[in-house]
Amino acid sequence: MTATSTDDRRGTLRGSGSPTASTPQNLMVFVLSMALFGLSNILLEVIPDVTIGPVDFSVSYFVFVPITLAALVSPFWVALGAPLGEIVFTDLLMGDFSGLAEVEGFIQMFLAIYIAGSVIRNPLSRIQVSIGALLVVAIDKFLSAVVDLAKVVVGVEEAEYVKGLPESVLLLEGIGFVVDILMSGVLFGIIPALWLVPALYRRIEPMLGLQPREPGRPVPGSAPGSAWFVLVAALAAIVSFFFAFFEAWDIEIGAVDGDFREQFGDGFLWISVAAVVVVLALATALFVGWRRKRSAR
User: Fold this and answer.
1) Can you give the residue range of the structural domain that contains 114?
2) Where is there biased composition of kind Basic and acidic residues (predicted)?
């Protein structure tokens, strides 16, 4: 084998051009994101929420999981896998699946992670990583708040008022937004991500056969900075609003309402953990086999 062909074969890892990824590499990133975010949501199931008056102090999700992956590898495939992992491993397997209504959360989380991961051009920039972590929560929770307000305005849901506060729907949404930013965005987003991203930088990419992200290089799978993408993202958000009304209208197409955790207790969560392990192990085995075949050529 000539030196030229060897360099071509290893170009995705050693080349000086833009980092590229093949279909098996993208699928491995997708499965890794799906499994890790799903596993993190399983862990959240056993963490109790704290409610003080009308304010619910809870962690919506561990933001550091998807933002760390999106900062290091393809934001698109990470954004595609993460919300699907939540749906499959915590909603569907737990028997708490709303059917088509789940599309709302999927689209909103996809947009949040995709845009946030694309903002990070330099994984070693603490400012960019911090902005990315905050954007995940800000975009997702802003779209969710708009949906909740729209349901009240349209009249498909009644407003939840707090005694002593005159028609405080907007105020409650604002308080909830700030709490989510602090809990999910800062405490379980920025703080762990600022340690994890530099710790995994140049370590996880070679395992996937990818080039580490470098400042000035195009980011593979990042959101294009053009007007048409803004238009598509806005249309996707509007489409998510439509699916959000399914649950309010009691349209349960494809819904699974077994509530297995309530029937069998917290021990049933191990079923989801086992599913995560099986999916990740199978994907890893297939990916390792593909890399060996490519190296043998």
Assistant:
1) 21-254+266-296
2) 1-11
